[in-house]
Task: structure prediction
Amino acid sequence: MAIITSIEYDVLVEIFEHACKMSDGRPNDHQAPLNLSLTCRRWREIILEHGCFWTRFTCEDIDRIGLARVWLQRSRNNILDLDLSGTFASGSLLCTIFENQSRLGRLLVEGTRCKGTEPVAISDLSSMSKLKLDRILFMVSASPPPAIDQTPSAARPQPIAPILYELQVTIEEKDMPRSFWAAVDLLEQCPRLNKFSLHIDGHSPSSHNTGGRIFNSYSLNNLAEISLSGQVVGPVQAWLQHTTAPNLRLLDIRNKNNRNSGSALPDSVADFLERSQCCGVEKAWLSIGRSGIQTWERIIQALPGLRMYYSGENFPFHREEYELLTIRNGSGDRWPCLSQFTKVGYPGDTSAVVSFLLSRLRRSQLFCADIEVRHLNEDSRRLLEDHAELSQCRVDLQSGACKTLAWDNLCLKP
Result:
C-alpha cells in the first residue's frame, strides 16, 4: 500500500470520479463509491467529502434498495439520479425520497400499495427531467393552472415541474379515479413535457365515472408522444375530450377491454385529434375498438401526414374501413405518406384488403404491410401473385392443407 498511499489527493479524486462514471448504466455496479469508501480510512474521507460521487443509484435487488437512503444522505445538495424501477420501494423509503424531491434529476420508482399508506406529496420537481411512478399513491400539492386564455401568462403560478421532459405513470384500477386525477394534476404542471405514458392496470373497467371532476381545457403545447394503455376508461376518455396537443408526433392508445368500450373511446380519440389539429402525427397505434364509419373517417382526416399505422387485436377492419383508405378523395389518397401498415387480426373482407394493398402498391406508396388474412379465395391469391413484382417481394407458396403466401411482410392464409 506504500505506493498507493503516496498518490496525491487531486489525482485520487480524479481516479474515483472516473471509477464512478464507469459504473453508470450497469446494474448493481452503482456501488463503486460505497466499495471505494470501504477500502481504507483515507479513501473513505475523500469519497465522503465529495457528494458528486453519490449522485447515481441503480438497484434491481430488493435486499439492497435501502441503500438509496445512503445515497440521498451522502450526495448532499447535488442533483440525484435514482433508478429503483426493478424493485418495490416501501412507504418509508418513498417518504424519504420525496422529502428530497427538489434535487431529484431523474426518478424511476415502483411501490406497493400498503394498507393505511398515505399518498406522497409532490410539490417541487424543479430539477427533474424524467419521472416514472409505478403503482405509487401520490398527490400534487399545487394549485391547478387556469383554463386556457383565462389568465395572462405573467399571472399564472409557477409550475412545480418546469423542465420535466418525460412522465410515466402506472395506476392500479382499484385506485381509480383518484390516482388518475393526481396524474392529470401533475401533467398540467409540466409545461415542457415531451413524452407522456399512462397505464391503468386491471382486468375489468370497474370505474367509469369521473368522480365529479370538472375539467379545464388545457393545451400540452410541447407534447410529442402520448401513450395510453390498459383500462382506458371513462375518466381518461373525458380527459382526452378536454385536452389538446398541437405538436403531437406519436399517438399510442391500446385499450384492454375493447369489447365493452362501445363507441365512446373512438369518438373521444376523434374529438381529441380534431381539436388538437395535430397534422404532424407520423405514427399511430390505435386499439380502441370498433368505431362507426363516420368516426373512422374523422380519424383518417385528422391524420393527414401519417406514415406508420398499427391497429389492435380484437376488432378487424371491415370492408368500409379498407374502402375509405382505398378510394381517393378530391385531394388524392387518404394517408398519402403511409409506408407501413400493420393490422393485427383478421379482416372480414378479403377482396377489400387486396384492393387496398394493390391500390397503394401500384403507386409505390406502401413499403411494408403486415396483415394476416384467412379464407383467401383463389382469385385474390392469383391477383396478388400477378402483382408481386410491384414491391419486389418474393412469393413463397407452400404445399399442404394450409397454404401460405409469404409476400414481404404480408401473410395470407386460405
In short: The longest strand covers residues 80-89.
